[in-house]
Specification:
The protein is α+β, with helices and mostly antiparallel strands. It has 3 domains: 2-174, 2-Layer Sandwich (Herpes Virus-1); 191-364, no CATH class; 401-657, Neuraminidase, CATH 2.120.10.30. The chain has 10 helices and 33 strands. A 4-stranded antiparallel sheet has the order 10-33-32-31, with no helix packed on it. It has a 4-stranded antiparallel sheet with strand order 11-12-13-14, with no helix packed on it. Strands 15-16-17-18 form a 4-stranded antiparallel sheet, with no helix packed on it. A hairpin with a 6-residue loop joins strand 20 and strand 21. The longest helix is centred in the first third of the chain and has 111 residues, at 139-249. It starts with a helix and ends with a strand.
Length: 658
Amino acid sequence: MAKASTLASTINTHLECVICSEPFNDPRALPCLHPFCCECLENWATSCSNDNSIVSCPLCKKIYRIPEKEGIKGFPVHFLVTNLQDTVDKAKQKKFTTNYCENHEGKEHEYFCENCGCAVCSDCCILDPTHRGHSFIRVKEASQCQSSSLETLTSRVTIVEEKYTTAIQQIQQVKQNLDRDTDVKIQATDEARNEFIQQVDKLVGDYKQDIYSKKEENVRAIEQIEEKLQVDLASLRSSTELASNLIESGSESDIISLYPSLSSSLQQSAELQPTPVDSKLGQIKLEPSTSMDLPSMVQLICDKLHTPVTTTQHIQIAKPDAAAQPLPPVTAKDLLSGAKSLPSSAIEPLSDVTPKAQVIAAAVSTQLKSIEKPEFSQSPSSKSAPPIQYKAPPSTGKKWKECGQFKTTPQVEYPKGIAIHPNGDIALTSRSAPVTVFSRKGDFKHVIKGSPSDIDAIAITPSNQYIVPGERGKNEFHIYDGEGILVSSIPTSDINNQPSRPSTVAVDSTGRIIVGLFYGGHKTVSIHQPDGTLVAKFETTPMRMLTCTPDDKLIKSVTDNTLREMNQSGHNARIIQSPPRIRSQPWYVCCSKQGELLVGNWGSPKAVYRYVCTGGEYKYLDCITTMGNSPYGIAMSADEEKLFVVESGASVVKIFRY
């Protein structure tokens, strides 16, 4: 009886769930063949991980993916457990719980009926008619035979189990290889796509630049034709005016003395014909002097994946001759005297002019002066400076579209200046708080300790240092490291070395710090090394804000409601024309790495508008957005994929992207 009890308890131990310690209810088998109740396994998967697609085995800790459709019930029923449960249940029904015969009291089961497959006592062998003629052996012998048979079957099943385990491990390895190979190929495909886009962008940029260059050639030819026509027209009007004045107010002797020369001039003027205008100058004709091969997307992907491709397609993009020589400049005086002529490819040469035309030229000298193009204003110190050819890189001309915004309150009210850290953090200055840092999602992070409040501008150097102007009454600017710890405070002074408070700061491509001072009537720009050491300073017009172009020119918004560009010595200052139909009052300015200029207008409308630099000239493109309040700080993310604009009155930072 002790033996039977021990066997029953051992079997029952294997029929209990290790999670709930209760008999199995709807047992399910994980791929490792460990059994668990279906409900217990569901609860286990929920409590152990936030990922509802995987479950770990409570015993061996291996992780398996849960079937998508059925969930935990998608795992197979553990038939070994269910079969054992059925066997135990049947044994219980037969009351096969002791070693004594249930038909003959006090008789032990000594024999095993081979025909019926059950244990019987000696009386059953002789007296029970159901066993008459059957073959009997001792219970011990039968138990040994059956134990040996079970061991043989168990070893066979164990071998099969090992095969299944090996197969499952192989499947898991194949799945891992598949995931790894998929990631590698996806990454290679993305790299091929990026490379393809970069090549396309480069070719398109070169092509656009060639178009703009060709346009400039045509514009110069057109302007020369127009200038000649204007000179001829002024000459004609002058001669007719002289003749009319002579007729109306000249004396008889004046008429007689001037008639020969004046009539000859009028006769020649009457025979003049306007220079023919070539209509083709209104079109851009590109000569396919050079062609560029652009690998197809299929070719690039196959190269990245080390896969042969049967056919290779190339996109031919014709590039016009970029070495075409510009037309020589021709002045109105040259045209009138016939000393120079335009190239025959542009217009016809000017006809010979008689010496008598000099009289007419003198009479219209005032009109000729009005034809000359006005020069951009320069600072007094720039009169002797040699001209500098501006070659800012062309802009891509992409469109900015609003993609989100975030509120800065309650941490920051009335935000003003903005700068974007390379890690995506957003640093804001404000009227009422020190420099405050937000995450790229607009969540408040921390305040830079010791930083001033009520400042308009902030900048970040290539080495990730914050540059912050001093607060009111402090004639200095501060340098903080990337963690917001104060590095140094640099005193500032105007061109006369008088202490002056900075109003705006910027950083050029080399990390030099540009400081604008105009508080208290001062009009000075000081330039410092990244450590704050003064390099130079110069006097300029009163400014509001300034920024740096990719080639380290300075763009500043001036108090006379203009935008101006100058170099870092203050020379070659020139006005950037205001957008049409806009009451210009530029304030905050920002320049991209591609030379795209973004300007916050406080006039009408309150908006952010932009320029692109083509051929050294900034040209207005469009308005990015109109705002209910004046736009304050403008900044770009490090990858220049996002644009941030501060709307101070609403305490909002609007976000735009290409």
